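New to this. Explain these tokens.
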Amino acid sequence: MKRFVSIGTILFSAIAVVLLFPLKTEALAQQKGPKPVDVRSVKIGKTLIDCYNELKDRDGGWCKMGRAPINHVLPKSPSPEINMVTGPKSVISAWNGAAFDNKNLKMYFHGGGHRDYGGNGVYELDLLVGKWTRLTDPSYIPPASKEVRCPVPISGPPASHTYDGIIFSRVTQTIFVIPSVYGCHRGSLNPKGDLWEFNPSETGMRNGLSPLSWRHRKQMPKRMFPKYYRTVEYPNGDLYMANAHNEWVFNPKKDSWKRIGSRPNYGAGTSIYDASRRGGLVAASRRDTFYKTSSNSKEVVSAGCRGGWS
């Protein structure tokens, strides 16, 4: 009987060891492995429909949609090369604009630049669902060295000040970004005619781009190299792209450029399409707005400012 008990005890112990060993191994792997991924999406509180219902019986007014800002989905504790001086909040607080998909009612944010922030992640604000989502994580940036003072991400564009040089194309269903000042922990890195395209879909191909991927388009015309970009989409799908000195029309499908004017505005401004204004284009900046008709196209009316930021 004692021998039988001893054998049973041995068998029970062996089974227990076999069962517990994977659990212990998994626990060790969790300790040595990466920390859990930080928050990638968060509800903002109200949707656009909620606000519509709240305001429809009023004679105008405001509706506060969110109690959860983009801060909730920004990456936590990025490396010094990515974080730079002011960190991930610079996607909003630095000199950056946003792209708007007016069919699906989604806004897209991307940017940083200069010494503010080096993360090239892309963020989506879905107004119908009422949700912020971090679509992509910042790409790894190697440490700077004597040979490479301003290293760039291993994939995608360096984060930059975008100003109004970021736009969603209805024709391609992709986002175009004209970088203005690339991010660099030791100062800044000026782009030379770069134009980038991003597919914001999480599942489908768009314009030959895989989901959530970037593509570097061919360089822009040399007269488009200076910064402070502004963009507008025409009804036919062409994109108005302008800097502080020149106006161009870009066809995103044909990859062609046509210059239509010169020096419409100096400084960092924004542009909108207004069909009531002789062809529809209005570019507006801060302080002392003035209007001007393009020398090469009577259909384009632009506006600008003098005197800098107010």
Remarks:
- The longest strand covers residues 256-262.
- The longest helix spans residues 2-32.
